[in-house]
Each structure stands twice: as structure tokens, then as C-alpha cells.
């Protein structure tokens, strides 16, 4: 009997492990707005806040460190990820830039969130990183990433439900509303793999 392959889970960080609403108070403070998370109907917050992409990039350049340091954990992600660590390979693949590695590692340490690898790719194109790490499924909040990863790699993607990712989904992309729901789906997937 051949040894079973450990399930490798690719995991986005912002809006997936961190609360998807965490950027809103900081942007409100900077741009003098009073928007709610529910008002963020598209992923590109420059459009939501009526600023240019350049202004948003400059804002993130200035405030990224604080944003990543202060972001709260999304639900009970920390607890679930701790239970997964002994049985699955956890690879975090994020659009954050490599220069934010220290603040990222410190945040994971503060909340006792385990990892096998953290890959800060510096762009929203996570496909080559997902291929490099051989991920079997992906957890994501950005619709475009979910669609690209599921189609190119033919793997399931669990898409966390947010105001900015509403759309019809292909069969491999599954909308989820909580980390508890993801936990159930991952356990089912793991059981299916071991029974093959």
C-alpha cells in the first residue's frame, strides 16, 4: 500500500485568515469617509473610495505595515489552522510584498497560527506559486484568483463570501461563509482522498 499524500492547502492571508473588513476603518480614517464593509461591492477599493489606483497603491505603501499588524483574525481561523497543522501542509500564498515578511511572521506568531511556508508573491497572480507548492486546494476571498486557480490547476477553491466577490461560480469554486464550514468541507475532502 502506497503512503498517502498529505493534503497541501494553499491559503490566502488578507480577507481569508485576516478579517475581510479590517481594511475599511483604516481607509475611512485616511480618506475621511464613513463607508461600511458592506459598501465594498468590488475588490478594487480605489473604485469604492473614488480614488485612483495610484492613490490606493501609495496609500497601501504607506499604511500596509500598520494594516497587516492590526488586522484581526477572521472568525476562528487561528483555532482551525492549529488543528490542521499536524495533518495537512499549510502554505500561505499572499499578494503582500516580500518586504512585509517580518510583520507577517510576527502577526502569525502573535496569534499562534502555524504554517509550513509563507510565500509573499507581491502580486495577485498566485498561479505559479500554487504550482510550485503543489497545492491540492486553495482558500481565497478574491473572485478572480479563485476562478484562475480552479481553472488552471483543476483544484477545488473555497471562496469566502464577501460583498466584493458575488458572481456565478464554476463547479470547482465553492462559496463558504465561515471557517467552520471550510473545516467541514476540508475534512470531507480529506476523507475522500484517503478512501480512494
From TrEMBL:
Domain of life: Bacteria
Enzyme class label: hydrolase
Gene3D superfamilies in the record: HAD superfamily/HAD-like
Keyword Aminoacyl-tRNA synthetase: no
SUPFAM superfamilies in the record: HAD-like (SSF56784)
Keyword Magnesium: no
Sorted UniProt keywords: Hydrolase
Entry's EC annotation: 3.1.3.-
Family stated for the protein in its record: Belongs to the 5'(3')-deoxyribonucleotidase family.
UniProt name for this protein: Nucleotidase
Organism of this sequence: Brevibacillus choshinensis
Lineage start: Bacteria, Bacillati, Bacillota, Bacilli, Bacillales
Amino acid at each position: 500500500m502506497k503512503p498517502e499524500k498529505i493534503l497541501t492547502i494553499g491559503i490566502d492571508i488578507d480577507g481569508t485568515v485576516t478579517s475581510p473588513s479590517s481594511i475599511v476603518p483604516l481607509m475611512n480614517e485616511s480618506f475621511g469617509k464613513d463607508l461600511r464593509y458592506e459598501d465594498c461591492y468590488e475588490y478594487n477599493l480605489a473604485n469604492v473610495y473614488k480614488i485612483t489606483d495610484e492613490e490606493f497603491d501609495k496609500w497601501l505603501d504607506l499604511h500596509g505595515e500598520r494594516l497587516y499588524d492590526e488586522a484581526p483574525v477572521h472568525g476562528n481561523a487561528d483555532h482551525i489552522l492549529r488543528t490542521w497543522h499536524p495533518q495537512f501542509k499549510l502554505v500561505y500564498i499572499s499578494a503582500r510584498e516580500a518586504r512585509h515578511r517580518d510583520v507577517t511572521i510576527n502577526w502569525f506568531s502573535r496569534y499562534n497560527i502555524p504554517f509550513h511556508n509563507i510565500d509573499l508573491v507581491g502580486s495577485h497572480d498566485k498561479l505559479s506559486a500554487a504550482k510550485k507548492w503543489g497545492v491540492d486546494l486553495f482558500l481565497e476571498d478574491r473572485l478572480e484568483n479563485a476562478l484562475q486557480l480552479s481553472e488552471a490547476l483543476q483544484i477545488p477553491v473555497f471562496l469566502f463570501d464577501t460583498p466584493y466577490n458575488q458572481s456565478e461560480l464554476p463547479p470547482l469554486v465553492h462559496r463558504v461563509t465561515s471557517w467552520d464550514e471550510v473545516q467541514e468541507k476540508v475534512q470531507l475532502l480529506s476523507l475522500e482522498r484517503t478512501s480512494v
